[in-house]
């Protein structure tokens, strides 16, 4: 109930905000010139650039204070475009932090374990050599607004893994199963944790629960190596841990 009410308040705040909306948004820090200027660009008819701000606005990155310059470079303390844009390039410029081959390093500044795993994958090898491997944004979106779910993953993989391109067409189906397995295992582990609240737990149960969690974490972080068999094996280990609790 409380949640509903506060959602209502938040929603009406946004509606109010949009109705009265002069131009600037309530989110974002007002002393970040990238955000202030880009939020206002639709006046200049520059739809693409304005659209990008909308995209970012809804992202987990904004919620965690990861602003434009974290991925694009530039200087958010300068108010003119010329000064703010020093170091900012278009994505098709090899000097850009978001040039397709540079994207993993840019994201990997913060997402180290994903980058480490990704560098061990066929995908990375292809990206570096032939150029047709997926990079982080192929799967997570330009502004990284989404993570893949079992419902959406197959379609993403099918862009390349299909009979026409003859890149292993069994991948989309297997990826869907693996991701489904991960999400169900998360739920199951959480249920176990709730049942075996710490105070009632024996040392052995606590050990198995810890070990189960660590196996699931390993499965998730090895996901970016794109060795699906390995992901499944690690999740199986988690199930052995849970089975040992009785
Ligand atoms: C005073 C306005 C202004 C400020 C401040 C500003 N930009 Fe821009 N930016 C623009 C405009 C206008 C464009 C559209 C393309 C153009 O005209 O060059 C643009 C385009 C871009 C592009 C697309 C690539 C390109 O160069 O065209 C990126 C990426 C970008 N800005 C990032 C940033 C970042 C990051 C910051 C802050 C460090 C920032 N901008 C600050 C006005 C601004
Ligand atoms: C988490 C990293 C990240 C953040 C934060 C981010 N961007 Fe981007 N942005 C990217 C990537 C990666 C691309 C290239 C997308 C591609 O190649 O599909 C991009 C593309 C763009 C483009 C399109 C340029 C073109 O010419 O196609 C603009 C404009 C842009 N970003 C502006 C912004 C602004 C303004 C902000 C802050 C409000 C911002 N971005 C925040 C990662 C980010
Ligand atoms: C300046 C640091 C920073 C950079 C650069 C960055 N991220 Fe993030 N990212 C974060 C933080 C902080 C979070 C939210 C906390 C968390 O889940 O780790 C996050 C969350 C995410 C999530 C969602 C995780 C979840 O559990 O929902 C994805 C996916 C993601 N980032 C992908 C990317 C991609 C792709 C890039 C490059 C285009 C990128 N990030 C660049 C810091 C960063
Ligand atoms: C081929 C697709 C693909 C590529 C390429 C990819 N990811 Fe992911 N990523 C996924 C999937 C699927 C998940 C969801 C796994 C899950 O639910 O935990 C995920 C999850 C994540 C998460 C959230 C992890 C968590 O704890 O839930 C982050 C952060 C992330 N990826 C960052 C990156 C970064 C950084 C790169 C580039 C170095 C990258 N990803 C490349 C498919 C991809
Ligand atoms: C942009 C194209 C592209 C996308 C999108 C893509 N892949 Fe790949 N993938 C490749 C290429 C190229 C190879 C290397 C094939 C080879 O060497 O024969 C590959 C290889 C693989 C392999 C190892 C080879 C195998 O047959 O087992 C796996 C696993 C894999 N991809 C999983 C995925 C998953 C999961 C997704 C979706 C989340 C995905 N890929 C999305 C291009 C892509």
Structure description:
With about 250 residues, the protein is mostly helical. It has 2 domains: about 1-85, no CATH class; about 105-245, no CATH class. The chain contains 14 helices and no strands. The longest helix is centred in the last third of the chain and has 25 residues, at about 170-195. It is globular, with a radius of gyration of 22 Å. The model is unreliable at about 1-30 (pLDDT under 50). One heme C binds near residues 156 and 175.
Key phrases:
mainly alpha, 246 residues, single chain, 0% strand, 14 helices, disordered N terminus, binds heme C, 2 domains
Provide a brief overview of the structure.
This protein has about 250 residues and is an all-alpha fold. The chain contains 14 helices and no strands. The chain is globular and about 65 Å long.
């Amino acid at each position: 109930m409380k949640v509903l009410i506060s959602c209502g308040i938040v929603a009406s705040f946004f509606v109010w905000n949009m109705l009265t909306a002069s131009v600037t948004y309530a989110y974002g820090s007002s002393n970040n010139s990238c955000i202030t200027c880009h939020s206002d660009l639709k006046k200049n008819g520059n739809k693409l650039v304005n659209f990008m701000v909308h995209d970012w606005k809804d992202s987990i990155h904004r919620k965690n204070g990861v602003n434009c310059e974290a991925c694009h470079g530039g200087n958010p303390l300068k108010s003119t475009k010329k000064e703010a844009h020093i170091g900012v390039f278009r994505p098709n410029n090899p000097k850009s932090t978001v040039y397709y081959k540079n994207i993993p390093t840019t994201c990997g500044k913060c997402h180290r374990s994903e980058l480490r795993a990704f560098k061990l994958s066929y995908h990375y090898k292809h990206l570096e050599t032939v150029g047709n491997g997926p990079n982080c944004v192929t799967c997570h979106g330009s502004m990284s607004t989404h993570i893949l779910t079992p419902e959406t993953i197959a379609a993403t993989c099918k862009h390349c893994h299909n009979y026409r391109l003859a890149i292993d067409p069994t991948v989309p189906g297997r990826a869907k199963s693996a991701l489904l397995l991960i999400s169900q295992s998360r739920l199951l582990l959480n249920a176990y944790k709730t049942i075996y609240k710490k105070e009632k737990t024996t040392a052995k149960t606590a050990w198995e629960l810890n070990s189960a969690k660590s196996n699931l974490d390993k499965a998730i972080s090895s996901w970016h190596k794109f060795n699906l068999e390995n992901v499944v094996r690690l999740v199986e280990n988690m199930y052995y841990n849970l089975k040992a609790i009785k």
